[in-house]
Amino acid sequence: MNKLFDMTGKVVAITGGAGNLGKTMTRTLLDAGAKVAVIGRTDRLGDEFADFRAAGRLAFLQFDLAEKGGAEAAMDAVEATFGGLDVLVNNAAYGGGAGGKSCEYRLDRVDDDTWQTGIDGTLGVTFRCTRAAIPHLERRGGGAIVNIGSMYGLVSPDFAIYGKDIPWSPPTYGAGKAGVLQFTRYCAAALAAKNIRVNSLTPGPFPNVTPKSDMAFIGRLSAKTMMGRTGRAEELSGALLLLCSDASSFMTGSNIVVDGGMTAW
What we know:
alpha/beta; 7-stranded parallel sheet; single chain
């Protein structure tokens, strides 16, 4: 059964793979035997990844995916580094509501530039990286794309749980992530003939809890789930590995929700 999820010999590119959830995703893929290219602006992979680097199974490729041509250059670099590409995980997000940043959430105060940046940082970057990856996946005879969605691509934030000093999730983030889910279905249909499977993984509440976190807010957020708590990063690992590996060989156009039941009631 373990062979079903074995990623040995597979090359995976993961955007935003050095971030909060991204680090755990990267480690999951490495532990499954894959060679992993992490694409991002800043290398935040710590000493715990040193052995994988030394073994030649992990590379950080510094690219700004917001720049024109950035996605194409990144995918070319993946192939140059590892000889090909089998799986793309579209995890990177930037702009309002992503990447540790926030933006104005009051609709009447969201200007055009903020809107465009936020949508580009969720939906636009996913589109560009997918487009850039297609020829590389084709050269391997096919592969898999996994898009990372969000609970706020399925439901609205409950603003009652946010206090005055806690940034609300802005409209750009949820709208962009909803677009990612539809783009997943579109790509699944468009790329099936190329033997490229496209699915999405939608996390629920996975806050990065630190000593500085507002635990009252974390409590209110936890109460929104059926399980009465927020998620731990490693709890995304099983679903991610399923979608990246041959274990999901007859899955495409699907969305797996890992949210403790938050969006089911």
